[in-house]
Amino acid sequence: MTHIKSAYSVSELMDLDLIPKSQDDQWSMLEQKYAIAITPTILKQINLSPSHDPIAQQFIPSLKELDKNDQELEDPIGDYKHTKTKGLVHRYPDRVLFKIVHICPVYCRFCFRREMIGPNADGSLSPQDIHDALNYINNHKEIWEVILTGGDPLILSPRRLKIIISGLNKIEHVKIIRIHSRVPLVEPSFINDALLETLASSSKAIYIAVHANHKNEFSKDGIKALKKLNDANISLISQTVLLRGVNDNLTALIELMKCFTENHIKPYYIHHLDHAKGTEHFRISVQEGRELIYKLRGYISGLCQPHYMLDIPGGYGKIDLNSDLNIKKIDNGYILTDYLGNEHFYND
Ligand SMILES: *Cc1c(COP(=O)(O)O)cnc(C)c1O
Ligand code: SF4
Question: Which residues are catalytic?
């Protein structure tokens, strides 16, 4: 397939034969609720023969997203509870999340922040909001690392990104800037000289956590973009979500972890799926996930090993699911112990 534009609607996806043509009203309901976008780079990587494609599963909407489930939450990881200034989430002492933009070049159908992102969401930061967040960071000497997220921070123009990076450069106690992004693989053309210059203008160590869930997301152009980041002295780490129908088997995970490592991306996290609305069809159980990830240890090099993480619902932080220290099986679920020693019931 050759497309030069991103697809943003159900009708465009029907025209491309990526969704079966239908008049069902449910499609327009879905479109109003959750944003859709698929970039040309990603459209090209979709291969619908055989019909079950790991890329299509991640980005092409499904009516299953309208299914309701009691466990599902608007704010599955408790961002709001720890929000200090607009866009700034301070849950752990030494690091903050700074949600600097609320749009993405692609919209993942399983996104944990799906209720807060997209062109219709109320997520833009005004210059005053940015000022307030930088001020908060400046006033909290314990903040060592600032994690830029969103949305996808690298969708911002280098000029707008530079405003934030220069602000952080002036704060002595911040040593690390980490950027969570899908851009290098889904919109590689954004990794251009202007962006690289902006990143290089920082005196901090810059890490990019590259989000990918299947090796097929590594296109030729994407690999070139990763190489540019590497050449610019930016450290790369990975993040992946464990997803039914995308990467819920040993072969897919082995190939993905090796692919990261071969491209100088150090495997970092595999996330257990959060309880975001309309994502039940992607869910695999904690037990199944633990077994899969435990097996990786034997089949691939220590260099390729990720941590298997779960964000405790309600904003209590992440735990390592493959450590028996903080997870206990009980009849109808698990007792999880957070880093402060508090216990939480988790219904799997
Ligand atoms: C996930 C998360 C972080 C980063 O956690 P790491 O384990 O350092 O990757 C920081 N703050 C918040 C609020 C988070 O949800
Ligand atoms: S790129 Fe991240 S924030 Fe954007 S839709 Fe995907 S998971 Fe959500």
Answer: 91-92, 95, 104, 108, 111, 113, 274, 311, 318
* pLDDT single digits (tens) 226-239: 999 999 999 999 99
**pLDDT number for residue 50:** 65
Give the long-range contacts of residues 69-74, CB within 8 A, separation 24 or more: 69/277, 69/280, 71/275, 71/347, 72/275, 72/276, 72/277, 72/278, 72/279, 72/280, 73/275, 73/276, 73/277, 73/313, 74/115, 74/277
Q: Tell me what percent of the residues of the chain surpass a pLDDT of 90.
A: 87
Ligand 2: nearest atom to the Cα of 151: 3
CATH of 80-346, one of 2.40.100.10, 3.30.1370.100, 1.10.3720.10, 3.20.20.70: 3.20.20.70
Q: Which atom of ligand 1 is nearest to the CA of 89?
A: 13
Every domain of the chain and the residues it spans: 10-66, 80-346
Query: Using CA positions, which residue lies closest to atom 7 of ligand 1?
Result: 318
Does position 136 have pLDDT exceeding 60, yes or no? yes
Q: Which listed ligand is nearest to 93 at the C-alpha?
A: 1
Residue nearest to atom 3 of ligand 2 (CA): 151
Residue 3: the pLDDT is 58
**Does residue 182 line the site of ligand 2, with CB under 6 A?**
yes
**CB-ligand 2 contact for 104 (6 Å cutoff):** yes
Q: What's this model's pTM, rounded to 2 decimal places?
A: 0.96
User: Residue 119 in 3-state DSSP?
Assistant: coil
pLDDT band at 176 (very low <50, low <70, confident <90, very high): very high
